[in-house]
Write a structure and sequence with these properties.
45% of the residues are buried. Helix 10 packs across helix 11 (314-325). The longest helix has 18 residues, at 150-167. The protein is α/β, with parallel strands linked by helices. The chain is flat and about 70 Å long. 32% of the residues lie in helices and 21% in strands.
Protein backbone atom coordinates (compact mmCIF):
# COMPACT_ATOMS: atom_id res chain seq x y z
CA UNK A 1 0.00 0.00 0.00
CA UNK A 2 1.27 3.44 -0.98
CA UNK A 3 -0.17 6.81 -0.02
CA UNK A 4 0.34 10.00 -2.01
CA UNK A 5 -0.80 13.28 -0.48
CA UNK A 6 -2.23 15.77 -2.97
CA UNK A 7 -1.89 19.20 -1.41
CA UNK A 8 -4.18 22.15 -2.06
CA UNK A 9 -2.05 24.96 -0.56
CA UNK A 10 -4.55 27.65 -1.59
CA UNK A 11 -7.05 26.24 0.93
CA UNK A 12 -4.72 24.53 3.41
CA UNK A 13 -6.12 21.06 2.67
CA UNK A 14 -4.90 17.70 1.48
CA UNK A 15 -6.52 14.87 -0.46
CA UNK A 16 -5.07 11.40 -0.91
CA UNK A 17 -4.47 8.76 -3.57
CA UNK A 18 -4.04 5.33 -1.95
CA UNK A 19 -3.06 2.37 -4.13
CA UNK A 20 -1.70 -1.16 -4.30
CA UNK A 21 -0.18 -2.76 -7.41
CA UNK A 22 -3.00 -1.87 -9.79
CA UNK A 23 -5.98 -0.44 -7.86
CA UNK A 24 -6.41 2.95 -6.22
CA UNK A 25 -8.88 4.93 -4.15
CA UNK A 26 -9.18 8.67 -3.69
CA UNK A 27 -10.09 10.32 -0.39
CA UNK A 28 -11.39 13.91 -0.01
CA UNK A 29 -10.39 15.24 -3.45
CA UNK A 30 -10.51 18.91 -4.42
CA UNK A 31 -11.88 19.96 -7.81
CA UNK A 32 -8.44 19.37 -9.36
CA UNK A 33 -9.56 15.92 -10.49
CA UNK A 34 -7.47 15.89 -13.67
CA UNK A 35 -4.37 16.03 -11.46
CA UNK A 36 -5.52 12.81 -9.76
CA UNK A 37 -6.36 11.11 -13.05
CA UNK A 38 -2.94 12.02 -14.45
CA UNK A 39 -1.22 10.83 -11.28
CA UNK A 40 -2.98 7.46 -11.39
CA UNK A 41 -2.07 7.04 -15.08
CA UNK A 42 1.57 7.82 -14.33
CA UNK A 43 1.59 5.18 -11.59
CA UNK A 44 -0.17 2.66 -13.81
CA UNK A 45 -3.12 2.16 -11.44
CA UNK A 46 -6.87 2.44 -11.90
CA UNK A 47 -8.94 4.60 -9.55
CA UNK A 48 -11.76 2.28 -8.39
CA UNK A 49 -13.63 4.41 -5.81
CA UNK A 50 -13.87 7.82 -4.16
CA UNK A 51 -14.43 8.24 -0.40
CA UNK A 52 -15.59 11.43 1.33
CA UNK A 53 -14.93 11.82 5.07
CA UNK A 54 -17.57 14.53 5.45
CA UNK A 55 -19.57 17.24 3.72
CA UNK A 56 -16.90 19.89 3.50
CA UNK A 57 -17.53 23.42 4.74
CA UNK A 58 -14.36 24.97 3.36
CA UNK A 59 -14.05 23.88 -0.26
CA UNK A 60 -16.04 22.45 -3.14
CA UNK A 61 -15.36 18.75 -3.47
CA UNK A 62 -14.21 17.09 -6.67
CA UNK A 63 -15.47 13.72 -5.50
CA UNK A 64 -18.79 13.70 -7.35
CA UNK A 65 -17.27 14.95 -10.61
CA UNK A 66 -14.41 12.41 -10.42
CA UNK A 67 -16.75 9.50 -9.72
CA UNK A 68 -19.04 10.54 -12.59
CA UNK A 69 -16.22 10.94 -15.07
CA UNK A 70 -14.70 7.54 -14.26
CA UNK A 71 -17.98 5.73 -13.60
CA UNK A 72 -16.89 4.53 -10.16
CA UNK A 73 -18.58 4.37 -6.71
CA UNK A 74 -18.70 7.51 -4.59
CA UNK A 75 -18.91 6.72 -0.87
CA UNK A 76 -20.50 9.24 1.51
CA UNK A 77 -21.94 8.79 5.01
CA UNK A 78 -25.39 7.22 4.86
CA UNK A 79 -26.59 9.94 7.25
CA UNK A 80 -25.70 12.90 5.01
CA UNK A 81 -28.69 13.96 2.90
CA UNK A 82 -27.04 14.58 -0.45
CA UNK A 83 -29.12 15.30 -3.56
CA UNK A 84 -27.53 12.79 -5.97
CA UNK A 85 -26.95 9.08 -6.41
CA UNK A 86 -24.05 7.74 -4.37
CA UNK A 87 -22.91 4.76 -2.31
CA UNK A 88 -24.15 5.33 1.24
CA UNK A 89 -21.67 3.91 3.74
CA UNK A 90 -22.30 3.30 7.44
CA UNK A 91 -19.90 3.07 10.39
CA UNK A 92 -18.03 -0.26 10.55
CA UNK A 93 -18.95 -1.10 6.96
CA UNK A 94 -16.04 -2.53 4.98
CA UNK A 95 -15.19 -2.10 1.30
CA UNK A 96 -12.58 -4.19 -0.54
CA UNK A 97 -10.67 -2.52 -3.38
CA UNK A 98 -7.92 -4.73 -4.80
CA UNK A 99 -5.85 -5.80 -1.79
CA UNK A 100 -7.00 -2.82 0.28
CA UNK A 101 -9.65 -3.13 3.00
CA UNK A 102 -11.36 0.14 3.82
CA UNK A 103 -13.38 0.36 7.04
CA UNK A 104 -15.60 3.35 7.77
CA UNK A 105 -15.29 4.59 11.36
CA UNK A 106 -17.77 6.95 12.99
CA UNK A 107 -15.82 10.06 14.03
CA UNK A 108 -18.22 12.94 14.76
CA UNK A 109 -16.95 16.29 16.00
CA UNK A 110 -15.92 18.33 12.98
CA UNK A 111 -19.35 17.50 11.55
CA UNK A 112 -22.21 15.43 12.95
CA UNK A 113 -21.91 12.51 10.51
CA UNK A 114 -18.16 12.58 9.98
CA UNK A 115 -16.44 9.35 8.96
CA UNK A 116 -12.79 8.38 9.03
CA UNK A 117 -11.43 5.54 6.94
CA UNK A 118 -9.09 2.85 8.20
CA UNK A 119 -7.21 1.37 5.26
CA UNK A 120 -5.51 -1.98 5.84
CA UNK A 121 -3.45 -4.41 3.81
CA UNK A 122 -1.79 -7.65 4.89
CA UNK A 123 1.63 -7.17 6.54
CA UNK A 124 1.48 -3.37 6.14
CA UNK A 125 1.09 -0.67 8.81
CA UNK A 126 -2.56 0.47 8.73
CA UNK A 127 -3.46 4.04 7.80
CA UNK A 128 -6.23 6.22 9.22
CA UNK A 129 -7.63 8.95 6.96
CA UNK A 130 -9.13 11.18 9.61
CA UNK A 131 -10.55 14.07 7.56
CA UNK A 132 -11.36 16.86 10.01
CA UNK A 133 -11.36 14.82 13.21
CA UNK A 134 -7.84 14.11 14.51
CA UNK A 135 -5.27 16.46 12.94
CA UNK A 136 -1.55 16.88 13.49
CA UNK A 137 -1.35 18.44 16.96
CA UNK A 138 -4.97 19.61 17.01
CA UNK A 139 -8.52 18.69 15.97
CA UNK A 140 -10.90 20.10 13.40
CA UNK A 141 -13.05 23.01 14.50
CA UNK A 142 -16.52 22.02 15.79
CA UNK A 143 -18.40 25.25 15.03
CA UNK A 144 -19.01 25.06 11.28
CA UNK A 145 -22.42 23.36 11.30
CA UNK A 146 -24.07 25.74 13.79
CA UNK A 147 -23.40 27.66 16.98
CA UNK A 148 -26.04 25.56 18.71
CA UNK A 149 -24.19 22.32 17.98
CA UNK A 150 -20.70 23.61 18.82
CA UNK A 151 -20.54 22.40 22.48
CA UNK A 152 -21.94 18.98 21.49
CA UNK A 153 -19.49 18.59 18.60
CA UNK A 154 -16.54 19.77 20.72
CA UNK A 155 -17.29 16.93 23.16
CA UNK A 156 -17.64 14.57 20.21
CA UNK A 157 -14.16 15.54 18.98
CA UNK A 158 -12.73 14.51 22.35
CA UNK A 159 -14.65 11.23 22.37
CA UNK A 160 -13.65 10.44 18.78
CA UNK A 161 -9.98 10.90 19.64
CA UNK A 162 -10.31 8.51 22.58
CA UNK A 163 -12.15 6.02 20.34
CA UNK A 164 -9.21 6.00 17.94
CA UNK A 165 -6.85 5.05 20.77
CA UNK A 166 -9.15 2.28 21.96
CA UNK A 167 -9.85 0.92 18.48
CA UNK A 168 -6.55 1.33 16.62
CA UNK A 169 -2.98 0.18 17.02
CA UNK A 170 -0.68 2.97 18.24
CA UNK A 171 1.51 2.54 15.15
CA UNK A 172 -1.40 3.45 12.82
CA UNK A 173 -0.34 6.14 10.37
CA UNK A 174 -2.45 9.31 10.47
CA UNK A 175 -3.48 11.22 7.34
CA UNK A 176 -5.85 14.17 7.99
CA UNK A 177 -7.50 16.34 5.33
CA UNK A 178 -7.33 19.61 7.28
CA UNK A 179 -4.59 21.37 9.22
CA UNK A 180 -2.22 22.53 6.50
CA UNK A 181 -2.84 26.27 6.72
CA UNK A 182 -6.60 26.57 6.29
CA UNK A 183 -9.26 27.67 8.76
CA UNK A 184 -10.79 24.25 9.50
CA UNK A 185 -8.26 23.42 12.21
CA UNK A 186 -9.39 24.54 15.67
CA UNK A 187 -5.83 25.55 16.61
CA UNK A 188 -2.36 25.74 15.08
CA UNK A 189 -1.23 22.34 13.83
CA UNK A 190 2.14 20.60 13.75
CA UNK A 191 4.18 20.95 10.56
CA UNK A 192 5.00 17.31 9.87
CA UNK A 193 4.70 15.15 6.75
CA UNK A 194 3.01 12.24 8.54
CA UNK A 195 2.31 11.19 12.11
CA UNK A 196 0.98 8.23 14.08
CA UNK A 197 -1.54 7.72 16.86
CA UNK A 198 1.40 7.10 19.22
CA UNK A 199 3.02 10.42 18.34
CA UNK A 200 -0.27 12.29 18.76
CA UNK A 201 -0.63 10.87 22.27
CA UNK A 202 2.43 12.94 23.20
CA UNK A 203 1.68 16.19 21.41
CA UNK A 204 -2.03 16.62 20.71
CA UNK A 205 -4.00 18.55 23.34
CA UNK A 206 -6.98 16.21 22.86
CA UNK A 207 -4.77 13.61 24.56
CA UNK A 208 -2.62 15.73 26.85
CA UNK A 209 -5.41 17.70 28.54
CA UNK A 210 -6.32 16.19 31.90
CA UNK A 211 -9.99 15.63 31.08
CA UNK A 212 -12.78 16.22 28.57
CA UNK A 213 -14.07 19.38 30.26
CA UNK A 214 -10.71 21.19 30.15
CA UNK A 215 -10.16 20.13 26.53
CA UNK A 216 -13.61 21.31 25.44
CA UNK A 217 -13.19 24.67 27.19
CA UNK A 218 -9.81 25.29 25.57
CA UNK A 219 -11.14 24.18 22.18
CA UNK A 220 -14.14 26.51 22.21
CA UNK A 221 -12.28 29.44 23.80
CA UNK A 222 -9.60 29.23 21.12
CA UNK A 223 -11.88 29.32 18.09
CA UNK A 224 -11.13 32.21 15.77
CA UNK A 225 -13.08 33.70 12.86
CA UNK A 226 -13.38 31.77 9.60
CA UNK A 227 -14.15 32.99 6.05
CA UNK A 228 -17.74 33.96 5.30
CA UNK A 229 -17.81 31.96 2.06
CA UNK A 230 -17.83 28.75 4.13
CA UNK A 231 -21.61 29.23 4.36
CA UNK A 232 -21.88 28.29 0.67
CA UNK A 233 -19.61 25.23 0.61
CA UNK A 234 -21.78 22.57 2.29
CA UNK A 235 -24.90 23.45 0.22
CA UNK A 236 -22.82 23.17 -2.97
CA UNK A 237 -21.37 19.84 -1.89
CA UNK A 238 -24.79 18.42 -1.01
CA UNK A 239 -25.96 19.11 -4.58
CA UNK A 240 -23.07 17.27 -6.25
CA UNK A 241 -20.74 19.84 -7.86
CA UNK A 242 -19.68 19.14 -11.44
CA UNK A 243 -16.33 19.77 -13.13
CA UNK A 244 -14.79 23.23 -12.99
CA UNK A 245 -16.13 25.64 -15.61
CA UNK A 246 -12.92 27.22 -16.90
CA UNK A 247 -13.83 28.82 -20.21
CA UNK A 248 -11.75 32.01 -20.51
CA UNK A 249 -13.68 35.11 -19.40
CA UNK A 250 -14.52 37.69 -22.06
CA UNK A 251 -11.78 40.21 -22.75
CA UNK A 252 -13.35 43.59 -21.98
CA UNK A 253 -13.09 46.82 -23.90
CA UNK A 254 -13.20 50.23 -22.23
CA UNK A 255 -16.89 50.51 -23.08
CA UNK A 256 -17.86 47.12 -21.62
CA UNK A 257 -15.70 47.86 -18.58
CA UNK A 258 -17.62 51.08 -17.94
CA UNK A 259 -20.91 49.17 -18.16
CA UNK A 260 -19.67 46.61 -15.64
CA UNK A 261 -18.54 49.36 -13.28
CA UNK A 262 -21.96 50.99 -13.56
CA UNK A 263 -23.73 47.82 -12.38
CA UNK A 264 -21.35 47.38 -9.45
CA UNK A 265 -19.00 44.66 -10.71
CA UNK A 266 -15.95 44.20 -8.46
CA UNK A 267 -12.63 44.71 -10.23
CA UNK A 268 -9.72 42.65 -8.86
CA UNK A 269 -6.28 44.04 -9.76
CA UNK A 270 -3.89 41.16 -9.11
CA UNK A 271 -0.58 43.02 -9.42
CA UNK A 272 2.02 43.25 -6.68
CA UNK A 273 1.11 45.62 -3.85
CA UNK A 274 3.93 48.04 -4.73
CA UNK A 275 3.01 48.22 -8.41
CA UNK A 276 -0.63 48.78 -7.49
CA UNK A 277 0.24 51.52 -4.99
CA UNK A 278 2.24 53.38 -7.66
CA UNK A 279 -0.73 53.62 -10.02
CA UNK A 280 -4.17 52.01 -10.11
CA UNK A 281 -7.74 52.63 -11.16
CA UNK A 282 -9.75 54.14 -8.30
CA UNK A 283 -12.24 51.79 -6.70
CA UNK A 284 -10.51 48.53 -7.60
CA UNK A 285 -9.38 45.87 -5.13
CA UNK A 286 -5.71 44.94 -4.90
CA UNK A 287 -5.68 41.20 -4.14
CA UNK A 288 -2.34 39.82 -5.23
CA UNK A 289 -2.21 36.61 -7.26
CA UNK A 290 -0.91 34.20 -4.66
CA UNK A 291 -2.27 31.23 -2.70
CA UNK A 292 -4.58 33.45 -0.61
CA UNK A 293 -6.39 35.10 -3.53
CA UNK A 294 -9.47 32.83 -3.55
CA UNK A 295 -9.81 32.95 0.24
CA UNK A 296 -9.96 36.74 0.40
CA UNK A 297 -12.13 37.25 -2.68
CA UNK A 298 -14.56 34.70 -1.25
CA UNK A 299 -14.38 36.25 2.22
CA UNK A 300 -14.58 39.96 1.46
CA UNK A 301 -16.92 40.27 -1.51
CA UNK A 302 -20.57 39.41 -1.77
CA UNK A 303 -20.86 35.80 -2.88
CA UNK A 304 -22.93 36.55 -5.97
CA UNK A 305 -21.10 39.77 -6.91
CA UNK A 306 -19.76 39.57 -10.49
CA UNK A 307 -15.96 39.82 -10.81
CA UNK A 308 -13.55 41.24 -13.34
CA UNK A 309 -10.01 39.86 -13.11
CA UNK A 310 -7.19 42.20 -14.10
CA UNK A 311 -3.83 40.56 -14.78
CA UNK A 312 -0.69 41.14 -16.75
CA UNK A 313 -1.41 38.11 -18.96
CA UNK A 314 -4.03 35.55 -19.95
CA UNK A 315 -2.08 33.04 -17.84
CA UNK A 316 -2.51 35.14 -14.68
CA UNK A 317 -6.27 35.28 -15.21
CA UNK A 318 -6.41 31.54 -15.91
CA UNK A 319 -4.56 30.76 -12.66
CA UNK A 320 -6.86 33.03 -10.65
CA UNK A 321 -9.96 31.57 -12.30
CA UNK A 322 -8.89 28.01 -11.44
CA UNK A 323 -8.19 28.94 -7.82
CA UNK A 324 -11.56 30.63 -7.48
CA UNK A 325 -13.24 27.49 -8.82
CA UNK A 326 -11.82 25.56 -5.84
CA UNK A 327 -14.45 27.38 -3.75
CA UNK A 328 -17.15 27.37 -6.42
CA UNK A 329 -16.63 30.91 -7.73
CA UNK A 330 -17.02 29.73 -11.31
CA UNK A 331 -18.65 32.75 -12.98
CA UNK A 332 -16.32 35.60 -13.95
CA UNK A 333 -17.83 38.65 -15.68
CA UNK A 334 -14.71 39.39 -17.70
CA UNK A 335 -10.97 39.97 -17.79
CA UNK A 336 -8.70 42.82 -18.74
CA UNK A 337 -4.98 43.38 -19.16
CA UNK A 338 -3.33 45.71 -16.66
CA UNK A 339 -1.90 47.93 -19.38
CA UNK A 340 -5.32 48.37 -21.00
CA UNK A 341 -6.94 49.24 -17.68
CA UNK A 342 -4.36 51.89 -16.83
CA UNK A 343 -4.63 53.62 -20.21
CA UNK A 344 -8.43 53.47 -20.30
CA UNK A 345 -8.72 57.09 -19.18
CA UNK A 346 -10.66 56.19 -16.06
CA UNK A 347 -9.57 58.07 -12.92
CA UNK A 348 -6.35 56.74 -11.39
CA UNK A 349 -4.96 56.94 -7.85
CA UNK A 350 -1.78 56.15 -5.93
CA UNK A 351 -0.52 55.99 -2.35
CA UNK A 352 2.78 55.64 -0.54
CA UNK A 353 4.37 52.41 0.66
CA UNK A 354 6.36 52.56 3.89
CA UNK A 355 7.95 50.35 6.58
CA UNK A 356 7.49 50.08 10.34
CA UNK A 357 10.71 52.09 10.72
CA UNK A 358 9.03 54.88 8.74
CA UNK A 359 5.99 54.61 10.99
CA UNK A 360 8.15 54.97 14.09
CA UNK A 361 9.49 58.25 12.73
CA UNK A 362 5.97 59.54 12.04
CA UNK A 363 3.86 57.99 14.79
CA UNK A 364 3.95 61.08 17.03
CA UNK A 365 2.37 63.13 14.22
CA UNK A 366 -1.19 63.85 15.36
CA UNK A 367 -2.31 63.57 11.72
CA UNK A 368 -1.32 59.88 11.60
CA UNK A 369 -3.80 57.10 12.41
CA UNK A 370 -2.44 53.54 12.70
CA UNK A 371 -4.88 50.89 11.46
CA UNK A 372 -4.29 47.23 12.34
CA UNK A 373 -6.28 44.80 10.13
CA UNK A 374 -5.09 41.52 11.68
CA UNK A 375 -7.49 39.06 13.31
CA UNK A 376 -8.59 39.41 16.94
CA UNK A 377 -6.35 36.55 18.08
CA UNK A 378 -3.32 38.30 16.58
CA UNK A 379 -4.24 41.66 18.12
CA UNK A 380 -4.63 40.10 21.57
CA UNK A 381 -1.05 38.79 21.49
CA UNK A 382 0.27 42.34 21.12
CA UNK A 383 -0.29 45.53 19.14
CA UNK A 384 0.90 49.08 18.60
CA UNK A 385 -0.49 51.36 21.34
CA UNK A 386 -3.37 53.62 20.26
CA UNK A 387 -3.79 51.78 16.96
CA UNK A 388 -7.32 51.35 15.64
CA UNK A 389 -8.20 47.67 15.24
CA UNK A 390 -10.49 46.66 12.36
CA UNK A 391 -10.01 43.06 11.17
CA UNK A 392 -9.86 43.00 7.38
CA UNK A 393 -13.07 41.00 7.02
CA UNK A 394 -14.96 43.79 8.87
CA UNK A 395 -13.34 46.73 7.12
CA UNK A 396 -15.71 47.25 4.16
CA UNK A 397 -18.75 47.55 6.41
CA UNK A 398 -17.08 49.66 9.10
CA UNK A 399 -15.13 52.28 7.17
CA UNK A 400 -17.24 54.98 8.79
CA UNK A 401 -15.38 54.53 12.10
CA UNK A 402 -12.12 55.70 10.51
CA UNK A 403 -11.33 59.41 10.87
CA UNK A 404 -11.24 60.56 7.24
CA UNK A 405 -9.26 63.69 8.13
CA UNK A 406 -6.18 61.70 9.16
CA UNK A 407 -3.56 59.85 7.15
CA UNK A 408 -4.24 56.15 7.69
CA UNK A 409 -1.13 53.94 8.01
CA UNK A 410 -2.43 50.41 7.61
CA UNK A 411 -0.60 47.20 8.53
CA UNK A 412 -1.13 43.47 9.08
CA UNK A 413 1.42 40.72 9.77
CA UNK A 414 3.19 40.69 6.40
CA UNK A 415 1.64 43.35 4.14
CA UNK A 416 -0.72 41.12 2.10
CA UNK A 417 -3.94 41.89 4.00
CA UNK A 418 -2.85 45.49 4.52
CA UNK A 419 -2.52 45.91 0.75
CA UNK A 420 -6.15 44.78 0.30
CA UNK A 421 -7.22 47.17 3.05
CA UNK A 422 -5.24 50.05 1.54
CA UNK A 423 -6.97 49.56 -1.83
CA UNK A 424 -10.39 49.62 -0.15
CA UNK A 425 -9.58 52.74 1.88
CA UNK A 426 -8.08 54.52 -1.13
CA UNK A 427 -11.15 53.63 -3.18
CA UNK A 428 -13.32 55.48 -0.66
CA UNK A 429 -11.27 58.65 -1.13
CA UNK A 430 -9.37 58.49 2.16
CA UNK A 431 -5.65 59.21 2.58
CA UNK A 432 -3.79 55.96 3.13
CA UNK A 433 -0.23 54.70 3.53
CA UNK A 434 0.52 50.99 3.10
CA UNK A 435 2.97 49.49 5.59
CA UNK A 436 4.56 46.68 3.57
CA UNK A 437 6.61 45.09 6.31
CA UNK A 438 6.78 42.11 8.65
CA UNK A 439 5.10 42.71 12.01
CA UNK A 440 8.10 41.25 13.84
CA UNK A 441 10.04 44.34 12.77
CA UNK A 442 7.53 46.53 14.63
CA UNK A 443 8.31 44.50 17.74
CA UNK A 444 12.07 44.65 17.27
CA UNK A 445 12.19 48.44 16.89
CA UNK A 446 10.00 49.05 19.94
CA UNK A 447 6.67 50.00 18.37
CA UNK A 448 5.01 47.16 20.30
CA UNK A 449 5.49 47.13 24.08
CA UNK A 450 7.58 44.21 25.29
CA UNK A 451 5.97 42.36 28.19
CA UNK A 452 8.71 42.01 30.79
CA UNK A 453 7.36 39.61 33.41
CA UNK A 454 8.61 38.42 36.75
CA UNK A 455 10.08 35.31 35.12
CA UNK A 456 12.99 37.42 33.82
CA UNK A 457 14.22 38.14 37.32
CA UNK A 458 13.54 34.57 38.49
CA UNK A 459 15.61 33.13 35.64
CA UNK A 460 18.41 35.66 36.14
CA UNK A 461 18.53 34.85 39.86
CA UNK A 462 18.64 31.10 39.22
CA UNK A 463 15.21 30.50 40.77
CA UNK A 464 13.65 29.15 37.55
CA UNK A 465 14.63 27.52 34.28
CA UNK A 466 13.99 29.01 30.82
CA UNK A 467 13.31 26.48 28.05
CA UNK A 468 13.44 27.26 24.32
CA UNK A 469 11.66 24.60 22.19
CA UNK A 470 12.21 26.20 18.77
CA UNK A 471 14.21 24.42 16.08
CA UNK A 472 17.98 24.63 15.63
CA UNK A 473 17.81 27.24 12.86
CA UNK A 474 15.66 29.60 14.96
CA UNK A 475 17.93 29.12 17.97
CA UNK A 476 21.01 29.97 15.88
CA UNK A 477 19.52 33.30 14.75
CA UNK A 478 18.34 34.63 18.11
CA UNK A 479 17.82 33.31 21.64
CA UNK A 480 17.28 34.37 25.23
CA UNK A 481 20.45 34.41 27.32
CA UNK A 482 20.53 31.54 29.80
CA UNK A 483 17.84 29.48 28.03
CA UNK A 484 18.04 25.70 27.77
CA UNK A 485 17.48 24.57 24.19
CA UNK A 486 15.49 21.39 23.51
CA UNK A 487 13.59 21.36 20.17
CA UNK A 488 10.00 20.31 20.75
CA UNK A 489 10.40 17.16 18.65
CA UNK A 490 13.22 15.89 20.88
CA UNK A 491 11.32 16.86 24.00
CA UNK A 492 8.22 14.93 22.95
CA UNK A 493 10.44 11.91 22.32
CA UNK A 494 11.45 12.03 25.98
CA UNK A 495 14.73 13.96 25.80
CA UNK A 496 14.52 16.41 28.73
CA UNK A 497 18.19 17.36 28.65
CA UNK A 498 19.27 19.12 31.86
CA UNK A 499 15.78 20.17 32.99
CA UNK A 500 15.22 19.75 36.74
CA UNK A 501 11.87 18.69 38.18
CA UNK A 502 12.44 20.55 41.41
CA UNK A 503 12.51 23.97 39.74
CA UNK A 504 9.84 25.89 37.82
CA UNK A 505 10.21 25.84 34.01
CA UNK A 506 9.25 28.82 31.82
CA UNK A 507 8.90 27.63 28.21
CA UNK A 508 8.74 29.64 24.98
CA UNK A 509 8.87 29.25 21.20
CA UNK A 510 8.13 31.72 18.38
CA UNK A 511 4.35 31.94 18.59
CA UNK A 512 3.30 30.08 21.74
CA UNK A 513 1.96 26.98 19.99
CA UNK A 514 4.98 24.67 20.31
CA UNK A 515 5.58 25.88 23.84
CA UNK A 516 1.97 24.89 24.57
CA UNK A 517 2.70 21.36 23.34
CA UNK A 518 5.85 21.29 25.48
CA UNK A 519 3.93 22.44 28.55
CA UNK A 520 1.34 19.68 28.14
CA UNK A 521 4.07 17.07 27.84
CA UNK A 522 6.09 18.35 30.81
CA UNK A 523 2.98 18.71 32.97
CA UNK A 524 2.29 15.02 32.45
CA UNK A 525 5.94 14.23 33.24
CA UNK A 526 5.66 15.89 36.67
CA UNK A 527 7.25 19.28 35.96
CA UNK A 528 5.80 22.60 37.04
CA UNK A 529 5.61 24.65 33.84
CA UNK A 530 4.46 28.09 32.67
CA UNK A 531 4.04 28.79 28.94
CA UNK A 532 5.23 32.35 28.31
CA UNK A 533 4.36 32.20 24.61
CA UNK A 534 6.35 33.62 21.73
CA UNK A 535 9.82 35.11 21.92
CA UNK A 536 8.66 38.35 20.31
CA UNK A 537 5.92 38.76 22.95
CA UNK A 538 8.52 39.60 25.59
Amino acid sequence: MEVIAVDVPELGNRGYLVYDTDSAIVIDPSRRIQELINLAAKLGVNIKAVFETHIHNDYVTGGYALARRLGIPYYISAYDNVEFKHHAIKPDQKVIIGTLQITALSSPGHTSHHLSYLVEQSNVTPALFSGGSLLYGAVGRPDLESDRLTPKLAKAQYQTAQFFVDRLDASTLLYPTHGFGGFCAAAETEHVAVSTIKQQLKSNSVYTKKDEASFVKELIDGLDVYPSYYAYMAPANLKGPLDMALDPPNLLTKETLLREIHIGTAIIDMRSRKAYATEHMSGTYNIELNTDLATYIGWLLSWDAPLILVGSSTKDVSIAQERLSLIGRDIIAGQMRTTELLKSGIKKSSYRVKSFADLKRNISNENVLVLDVRRVSEWQKGHIPNALHLPLHQLINRLDVINSDKEIWVHCASGYRASIAASIISGRGKKVVLIDDNYSNAVKIGLVPIMKKKFVDEVNEGKAQLLDVRNNAEWAVERAIGAIHIPVGLLLDGDIGTLRKNQLVYVYCESGRRSGLAKNFLDNAGFKVVNIGGLNDW
